[in-house]
Design brief:
By secondary structure, the protein is mostly helical. It has twelve helices and no strands.
Length: 275
């Protein structure tokens, strides 16, 4: 009965945010396909080629690849709206599991019940992971719907975007796990959000520097965002799953390690009394 209660609580805590973000992800990707369909391919290539070389390098793939129908739609998976959705879900759910409960003064009530700390953490992690998968699936569904409605499905195979959606899931999984690890050792949700938010900004800066400064390309190995390249998976379909195995394997492996570390930290720490 208590395990059922944990599942119910985890689902109820996540469903409103998940529902809103799933709708946002679907609607945005559908809208992105429609908006890009309004721009002529020649004009799109001219716009991209007009950008300074450093800005072109931020795209991460050759301009000739992005100028295709499939390539320009693939850029939707690295759009700020998609990244905002990824970060919002990861930080909100990962920070809530331990530091959120402690901050609200409800952790002692939960642990006073016949449940283990591992069960509490695992239930939350599974529900959040399923939510991450739904977000990635809604992104792909939005792309598919947009291709169908605009008629571009004849020019861009929806299957091209499956590896990109999976890469989106893997990045969300890792960032959520990293946030859970910080939450497991903290007692204030706002501080957890600040720490992980700062971590994400630093990682983003490292990737930008690695893209724009040829002498610092090695910084890609210092940021998890170096393995988040959904646009590359779209424009190189012949080796998309090979690249995906390396990128997604790295992100999911790091995420699993973070969850294990979070479980160790949570099991060993003392829970402060509510203020």
């Amino acid at each position: 009965m208590m395990n059922r209660a944990l599942w119910t609580k985890a689902i109820n805590d996540a469903r409103l945010l998940l529902g809103g973000l799933v709708l946002l992800m679907f609607a945005f990707n559908c809208l992105f396909v429609w908006l890009t369909s309004l721009v002529d391919l020649g004009a799109w290539q001219f716009i991209l080629q007009s950008l300074p070389g450093q800005l072109q390098s931020l795209i991460g793939v050759p301009i000739a690849k992005v100028a295709t129908t499939a390539g320009r739609i693939g850029l939707g998976y690295i759009d700020p709206v998609v990244l905002f959705t990824l970060v919002t879900w990861s930080l909100a759910r990962g920070s809530d599991v331990v530091s959120g409960e402690i901050g609200r003064g409800t952790m002692e009530l939960l642990l006073a019940q016949p449940v283990s700390r591992l069960s509490l953490l695992a239930t939350h992690a599974i529900v959040t992971t399923v939510g991450s998968a739904l977000l990635a699936a809604s992104a792909w569904a939005g792309t598919y719907t947009g291709l169908l409605l605009t008629g571009l499905i004849k020019e861009a195979d929806p299957a091209l975007y499956v590896p990109a959606a999976f890469n989106l899931f893997a990045a969300t999984f890792f960032l959520t796990a990293a946030t859970t690890l910080v939450s497991a050792g903290d007692s204030q949700r706002w501080r957890t959000l600040g720490i992980v938010g700062a971590f994400y900004v630093v990682e983003l800066i490292l990737k930008i520097v690695a893209r724009m400064a040829p002498n610092f390309t090695w910084l890609m190995y210092a940021t998890f965002l170096g393995a988040f390249e959904p646009q590359s998976l779209v424009v190189y379909p012949e080796r998309a799953w090979q690249i995906s195995l390396r990128y997604d394997g790295t992100l999911i492996g790091l995420g699993l390690a973070a969850y294990v570390a979070a479980a160790v930290v949570f099991n060993r720490r003392d829970i402060p009394a509510p203020l």
